[in-house]
Amino acid sequence: MTNILKMAESYLPTPPSEPEPDVALESASQPHPSVPLIPAKEATIYLHTPFHPKAEEYAVERFKEVLRPSDLGGDVGQLMGRADGILLRVGHITRDMLLAAPKLKIISRNGTGIDNMHLPTVKEKGVVVTNCPGGNAQAVAELALALMLAVLRRVVEIDNRIRSGEKVPSITALAPGLFGSTVGLVGMGDTAYELARLLLAFGCRILVYSPTSPSNRWLVESPRYPVVIPHERVNSLDDLLNQVDVLSLHCPLNDQTRRMISTDQLIKMKDTAVLINTARGGVVDERALEQALESDQLGGAGIDVWDVEPAYGETMGKLGKLRNTVVLPHLGGSTDGATLEGCMRAIDIMADYLDGKGARNRVV
After folding, report:
1. 24 pLDDT exceeds 90?
2. Which residues form the D-isomer specific 2-hydroxyacid dehydrogenase catalytic domain (predicted)?
């Protein structure tokens, strides 16, 4: 116990900061829940999907009881009926689950997006929702870069060919590479910023479409963005599409961005261009992307997020089988360090709120 609590000191919450840019956060001025708060040490918490193992140990120390989906015979109604709070990493919180939770006061999300819960019911019940913006930005940016390189250099395709016994002369594996490419970013949040920093080392020309971001973002040093990023802003998505060698998505999923990339957009891109999606699955029309890749209207795609998650064989359709795609099951933030830090922050935010210290990073 002592070791876990000492470890937690290195993950104490940072001072409140502005919400993750380009995320359509819900108003933080929603009514306070009518259910009275309860001290964290007396609270029962529902852990909807696994947290980092060390963070789960920490949660056991911070709360009276931590319930998991397999507890109480897996009876969702009973689990929800006892929950004072929900710790959420991945997975979905449905309306029925929320309606079965009369004591629920807070959902603390490890991550930024809140599209994986039934928000109308959350608001109806007056449940507080908090998130952990920026905590995994470097990890997601790192994966976005890895996908770019893997697709552009045909890494997975060639790996599969030689593993199957094929001899692959280097002249048959020519690839465009990333150095000196024009990369388009949709969004200017923390992940896009960290990726842009990495792209500077590759001599990339960086174009950005982000209508909700201030005009001087990344052009002046700030505590949040300490490195100035040379880039060009464009006024519309169309202005971006026909110029880029790589299009990387870093925007939330909302009514404005749902199916932002579909047939009409894909046909405007170069037939050698690569699409990278580490944002949210619903931002891209997966069937339209399939068609563009199959018909060689697009050079390739690296996909980490999906309409249906967890993603596996049949849910991915043809995207999981095409030679010019690299597919992952939403691993963007899943480095050991980033996952541990985010889970610890989510626990501390919940515990502090229940202890009457206010809701940091409140988004609903």
Report:
1. no
2. 70-363
